[in-house]
Specification:
Trna Endonuclease, Chain: A, domain 1, 2 domains, six-stranded mixed sheet, two-stranded antiparallel sheet
Length: about 170
């Protein structure tokens, strides 16, 4: 029993170290702080936005408030939020000001993309005007992707998105 636990801990630590090493090797694609799921989500967001026709770049300043990616051509600032199947409440941190586009990525129990929500800031402003009791800095929830949620009503929701990473070249 203890050996099994110790092996699981060792595997986890080895995987974390590997992710940090790869992030150090490719900082423009996979850098970040110790929030490994956040790093993965930002990488997935980069790949998705490339498919979406944008030219995103990671913000290398780890304490940049309000957005994580910026489009090299247009200056469009994207904030990325990720919720995994492990998150039983289905919610994450509050939305911060400073973004033009919000991406919410839901990862299933296999850590594959279950859904991606895309919301433009001008549509967010419309939602606030139409729903004045809603917060300008809400906690981001998985339910926001549903038909009554902000992404479902004012943005775009894409289910079961396949990144096809083998076909990417950056």
């Amino acid at each position: 029993m203890y050996t099994e636990i110790e092996n699981a801990i060792t595997s986890y630590i080895t995987a974390r170290r590997n992710i940090i090493e790869v992030g150090n090797k490719y900082p423009s694609l996979f850098s970040g702080n110790d929030n490994i799921i956040g790093r993965i989500g930002e990488f997935y967001a980069l790949m998705f936005l490339l498919d979406y026709g944008q030219q995103p770049s990671k913000i290398l300043n780890a304490s940049n408030p309000g957005f994580d990616l910026i489009d090299e051509k247009t200056g469009l600032k994207t904030q990325v939020k990720v919720i995994t199947a492990e998150n039983k409440l289905g919610r994450t941190v509050q939305l911060k000001d400073g973004w033009d586009q919000l991406l919410l990525i839901i990862l299933d129990s296999n850590y594959d993309i279950e859904s991606i929500g895309v919301l433009q800031h001008d549509k967010f402003e419309i939602s606030i005007k139409e729903n004045p009791t809603h917060s300008r800095t809400p906690y981001i929830r998985k339910s926001m992707l549903g038909p009554k949620g902000i992404f479902g009503r004012y943005g775009t929701v894409i289910d079961n998105y396949n990144l096809n990473l083998k076909d990417k070249c950056i």
